[in-house]
Amino acid sequence: MANLFRFVALTVILSCCHPALGSAEEVTVASSGILKTLDKNHPRLMLKDEDLKRLKELYAKDEVLQKCLRDVLKDADECADKRMLTYRKIGPRLLHISRECLHRIYALGLAYRWTGEQRYAEKAVENLLAVCAFEDWNPSHFLDTAEMSHAVGLGYDWLYSYLDMETRKKIRAGLVKNGLVPALSAYEKSWWPKSEHNWNQVCNGGMIVGALAIAESEPRYAEQIIISAIESLPRALKSYSPDGAWMEGPGYWSYATHYTAYGLTALQTALGTDFGLLQIEGLAESGNFPIYTSGPRGLYLNFADCGEKSSRRPMPCMFWLARTYDNSLYAQAEHAEIAKSDARAQHVVWYVPVPVTMPAAKELDRYFRGPVEIAVFRSAWDDPEALFVGVKAGYNQVNHGHLDLGNFELDALGVRWVRDLGSDNYNLPGYWDKRRGGRRWSYYRLNSKSHSVPLLDGEDQNPLATSRFTRFQTERSSAFVLVDLTSAYKNSANRVTRGVAMVGNRRAVLVQDEFDIEKPCEVVWAVTTDAKIDINEKDTAVLTLGARKLIARLLSPSATGFAIESAEQKAPQKTNKGLRRLIVRLPNTSGSLRVAILLSPVWKDKDVVATVPIKPLTQW
Ligand SMILES: [Zn+2]
Question: How far is the CA of 527 from the centre of ligand 1 (A)?
């Protein structure tokens, strides 16, 4: 990292010694420094004309690319029929309007550049002029400003030759007033340039595009924004280290990584350099994260404020990662997605053909290190009925985090049996107050009580807690992870450790928690499920989803049994209708305690793993 900072700093200093840019149409102020390599032609962002030409040659023989174009043109036709964008906030955000504008500009812009049909350009320009006339792009929630700057910058650049002088001037004026001016102030005063999460990449990436689009006309703004952005970006990009995981969960991985791709592609196409940012540890590996955190039916291992039941969808940034790092696994994975669903314009921008050589076989299990550790295990790839379990550790103060250290989710027989509920409404009062005692932790979906984690005396995990995996083993016959949860429960326990293992030849999952408790307290083991629950004998619960069944067996301790509770809540929180908790309550417990529960799907051959020997976690 230090090397990278030095490289960036050096590049900036060296660049400043170089002479100003040559003249280009509408240049108002000569630029210096970092813009010295600026490509003065348009389009220079994301997809240059020579790239477009190459794609058109490929198009003649690549059926998948032909399908992508059909999808984009269909999308552009729909965008052309939509009502004009208006300034309308939801809560404190204008973000949905910024995103809709971005979506339209990519689709309409590419449709115009591909077909030459003026109606697409015309519609794109109407949208651009509409948002440029907005009073602002809501800089108090800067994501909105950055995404709109991206949309307007891209539209200006891609449609440059179509636009007349007067229209160019209007769009530039809107982009400067509503985008670049607030950005300079934000780089000086706002918190997000120092942040390490999705805001960093989205705000920087969006502003890089906006600034480079009009850099020959507004070099002073562009220069300051680019310098600030390349200084700020490493703070977040290092969050991918070392294995490419994203601490804010798979949903925000997508948002953050798309904007990483936008920002770095724009730097490369417009300035010819990525300033060494592509070399940051973990970024090359990050395409593994959505692949491995998708369950057998594509449902993500859901943590942090991931959307409820969020699942893998087409993500053009996978093509960007595939081509940037020459990774056939990422390419193959994304091709599988666009075979099932529509491709987007960005798939065409970053298009990579189906790989000719097959990537190496994927591992069954994966351990992602980093600020939030993740372990995932499965019985097979390419079997939608396979057994899958994912476990998380990390720290509870992470952006968008829940009080969920040690949480796990389980899929089998094509459905999810144990699940995280996902995010709640971002506009609930105090949703972002994640301090100890903060209002965020009064919300069921965010606190420990909705998660499949232990509860001691009904208390939430410590909001400041951190946890690490202490062991990870991946063998065909023995695969497990141990997580030290002591810091989450330090009010009540001297030690809390959870083990999650694939057992019975990967046909069942054992969850084993061990406690060392000084003062007597109530220990609760629980999971949250959509399943109907029947408790036949006190130590056996049958979970049913449609025609599928999973049996939960309480192997330890013996003197107690399962109970069923509701996970429903009252509005304005999400109500979680029909959701239940399978629960074991152990009142007045002290000393050493081991809770071991076997989760056994009833497989198609009616085979069920009935029991497994219990060993202390230290002997796993
Ligand atoms: Zn959660």
Answer: 12
